[in-house]
Design goal:
Elements: H1 3-8, E1 20-26, H2 31-35, H3 37-47, E2 51-57, E3 65-66, H4 69-86, H5 92-98, E4 104-105, H6 107-120, H7 123-139, H8 147-152, H9 162-169, H10 174-191, E5 199-204, E6 207-210, H11 220-236
Parallel strand pairs: 1-2
Antiparallel strand pairs: 1-5, 3-4, 5-6
Length: 247
């Protein structure tokens, strides 16, 4: 099942048309997605079930890649900037992990696990799982190539782990499984005029529009204030003034 089909198949009710649809295009290995975690949490806390989350996977690293010196230095520099801008902690465990000579990154296994949560149809549990993986990786320094970790992290969130265990056990089929979903996530990003991960886009007045979340990495509350009139308009079904809906 495609990500769009999974999103469309989520349980609906009479109020779904009065929820703001939020497309979250992300990758579990993306440091800037981890940097945006406080933004995600602020949106969830403030707006709750007034939002309908749609989660897409971008495929930042589509095959196993051993880190070279330049890539490692890039990650370390980005980690320092993330801490400075957002206050998000990049743990010593992560810094030690990526400096191991044989450290390899691969978006596929963790994305397979996230997609299994997407298929379950509960975006709140999917977001909870993403948060768990980000903390395991960027704070505690665990590799997201470890399938046992990916499975155990679904405890209490994924009702049946059988399909996930089977998919993760078939390494040769990872690309065939995920490449179409990564392409779909990338297409969603470009169609909403995003330029990288994460991209947040809201379905507003008939089309998906990118949220300029980059302006709020250190100020999630500022984004909440900017979104309030948009959410109010969608929930009420009444059109707000254009000046009040710029995000």
């Amino acid at each position: 099942m495609s990500q769009q089909a999974a999103n469309d198949a989520m349980p609906t009710n009479n109020d779904v048309s009065h929820k703001l649809q939020v497309a979250y295009i992300m990758d579990p290995l993306c440091g800037w997605c981890y940097a945006a975690a406080p933004i995600v949490e602020a949106m969830r806390e403030e707006f709750g079930d007034q939002l309908q989350w749609q989660i897409y996977l971008g495929g930042l690293i589509r095959e196993s890649r051993v880190l070279g010196p330049r890539f490692r230095d890039h990650i370390l520099a980005a980690s320092q900037r993330i801490e400075q801008i957002t206050g998000q902690t990049i743990g010593m465990g992560f810094k030690q992990l990526i400096q191991q000579p044989d450290c390899a990154l691969d978006s596929r296994p963790s994305s397979i696990a996230i997609h299994e949560l997407i298929l379950q149809g509960d975006p709140e549990k999917t977001l909870d799982y993403i948060k768990r993986l980000q903390n395991h990786h960027f704070r505690e320094g665990f590799s997201l190539n470890e399938t046992d970790l990916l499975i155990s992290a679904t405890d209490g969130l994924l009702e049946d782990q059988t399909a996930l265990k089977e998919k993760l056990s078939k390494r040769a089929g990872w690309s065939e499984l995920m490449d179409p979903l990564f392409t779909q996530g990338h297409n969603m990003m470009t169609s909403s005029e995003g330029q990288g991960y994460p991209t947040f886009a809201i379905k507003y007045r008939g089309r998906y529009q990118k949220i300029q979340h980059e302006d709020f990495y250190g100020d999630p509350e500022g984004l909440i204030q900017a979104l309030k009139p948009v959410v109010a308009e969608v929930v009420s079904g009444k059109v707000a003034t254009p000046q009040a809906t710029e995000v």
